[in-house]
Specification:
Layout lengths: L28 H10 L11 H17 L7 E6 L1 H12 L5 E5 L2 H12 L7 E4 L16 E5 L1 E2 L4 E2 L13 E5 L16 E4 L11 E6 L14 E3 L4 E3 L4
Parallel strand pairs: 2-3, 2-4, 4-7, 7-8
Antiparallel strand pairs: 1-9, 5-6, 8-9, 10-11
Helix pairs in contact: 3-4
The structure holds pyridoxal-5'-phosphate.
Length: about 240
């Protein structure tokens, strides 16, 4: 068996600037210096106090402007990267059945998250040959349509367009992890346009950011309305 640790990419094949394709970005020395300069004015202060709140506000405003977010869209941040967002979406955004376009590793992972969720119906998963992509189609009973705008594992991009003929209120959830900031988008075609910032935004990973269209399905219910479900003991939101 080959020992992977011994594999070396020849220097002449390495990309000159360290960023390549849609892989994780190089974090520039200037970024680290800026963090060090901010020092204790941010790190080690309370995340509820002005320095951190202002910084988060700057990120939210900056992304709204950058993506020309339509009136009312909110920028939401969460920890755990896009992978954690898939759990958030399976739990809080898909009501009963999702349709996924699965044309590479990442689209297929989100598909399997909703497909295996015991509180959802089996997902409708449309697949295609590697290097191609399937097209979403309206399906009765599907209340969320999901696909990556760029499938990082194959480099195949997919348009961000609502599904014509979808049930009323069906959500469009777009994974823009390797597309956001690189491919143009009309955010009004998605209810949630989410990504992790380790690609075009040249950040470290571990965070997810999403532009959420305002609406009953994309707004967290008040805690008083949360109820607990059956044997799983999971807390669920009531159906709107
Ligand atoms: C399209 C896409 N979706 C999701 C992910 C997973 O992101 P994370 O590592 O932030 O969970 C990646 C990571 O490369 C990705 O390219």
């Amino acid at each position: 068996m080959t020992d992977n640790a011994d594999i070396r990419i020849p220097a002449d094949l390495l990309p000159l600037d360290g960023r390549f394709g849609a892989g994780p970005s190089k974090v520039r020395a200037g970024q680290l210096a800026a963090l060090a300069d901010a020092g204790q004015s941010i790190l080690g202060t309370s995340h509820r106090q002005a320095p951190v709140r202002n910084l988060v506000g700057e990120v939210r405003d900056g992304l709204s402007t950058f993506f020309r977010a339509p009136e009312g869209y909110e920028v939401v941040l969460g920890v755990g990267g896009s992978t954690a967002f898939w759990d958030v979406a399976a739990f809080g955004l898909v009501r009963s059945r999702a349709q996924h376009l699965s044309f590479g590793e990442f689209g297929s992972k989100f598909a399997s998250t909703t497909d295996r969720a015991p509180f959802l119906e089996a997902s409708s998963i449309l697949t295609s040959e590697p290097g191609t992509r399937p097209t979403a189609r309206p399906e009765q009973g599907v209340d969320a349509y999901a696909w990556p705008q760029n499938e990082t594992s194959t480099g195949v991009a997919a348009p961000v367009l609502r599904v014509d003929g979808a049930d009323d209120g069906a959500l469009t959830l777009i994974d823009a992890t390797s597309a956001a900031g690189g491919l143009d988008v009309d955010v009004s075609q998605a209810d949630v346009y989410y990504f992790a910032p380790q690609k075009n935004f040249a950040s470290d990973g571990g965070l997810w950011l999403g532009l959420f269209m305002p609406g009953p399905r994309t707004k967290p219910p008040p805690a008083s309305q949360l109820r607990c479900c059956g044997s799983t003991g999971r807390t669920t939101a009531p159906s709107p």
